[in-house]
Amino acid sequence: MSSTYNIYCDESCHLEHDGQSAMVLGAIWCDLEKVKDVSVRLREIKTKHGCGSKFEVKWTKVSAAKQSLYLDLVDYFFDDDDIRFRALIVPDKSRLNHSAFPAQNHDNWYYKMYFDMLKVLLSPDSKYRVYIDIKDTRGSVKIAKLQDVLCNNLYDFQRSIVERVQQVRSHEIELLQLADLLIGAVSYVNRNLEGSVGKLAVIDRMRRRSGYTLNKTTLLREQKVNLFRWIAQETQG
Q1: What's the distance, Cα to Cα, between the start and end of the chain in Å?
Q2: What's 163's DSSP letter?
Q3: What pTM does this model have?
Q4: Is the distance from CB of 147 to CB of 162 less than 8 angstroms?
Q5: Distance between CA atoms of 61 and 196, rounded to whole angstroms?
């Protein structure tokens, strides 16, 4: 009997003209049967630190005052074998040359990167439900296109492998909040930032627990923290 996995996706600095050089797309995935237990545990950690179970975990909220909460969340991620993380890093968006490719713009390229980030997680022996943090009102058409591309790559024309690709709101989903935290840490490293003591502490814990610097490609079969650093060629979109 095949397993069903939920994949929770988010991104950092994905806009074309946001003044940031690096972009990170990332995902946490978890067996559907474990999602409830993991979500309960994440709420328990928030409550333990006096934040309340409905507190929304976000990278932008990481501070010295809440450092212990975020360190506990990182430790929980590494201690629980049921949850895994992958990120695609684009270190320099200024090297992109969309005009070199017919009918390509930044939005289209962005979903190509989403495909590259997700495709290595998918196996024809399992089923997947992909949830992406909602960003704007125009995303539904592109979300449908992303599902088409993922399914076609797997010859999954009946959508029996990639069962759904759906926009959701992060404040309602604990695992998507955890994805935001880990993606934020990878993005902070790859933007060479160092102004926040709390954020640097989270990054240090993630580096020590993973054994990775968070700015280089890992082995393709790395299971816990899988990173891919995507480099644009001079004529590549």
Answers
A1: 40
A2: E
A3: 0.90
A4: yes
A5: 11
SS3 217: coil
pLDDT digits (tens, 9 = 90+) for 80-129: 999 999 999 998 776 655 555 666 665 677 778 888 999 999 999 999 99
Beta strands, E only, the chain: 4-12, 23-31, 83-90, 127-133, 162-168, 225-229
181 and 57 in contact (C-beta within 8 Å)? yes
CB 129 within 8 A of CB 5: yes
Which string of DSSP letters, residue by residue, matches 57-108?
--GGG--STTHHHHHHHHHHHHH-TTEEEEEEEES-GGG--GGGSTT--HHH
Q: How do the residues of the chain divide into helix, strand and coil, expressed in percent and rounded to 5?
A: 45, 20, 40
> How far is 183 from 58, CA to CA, in rounded Å?
10
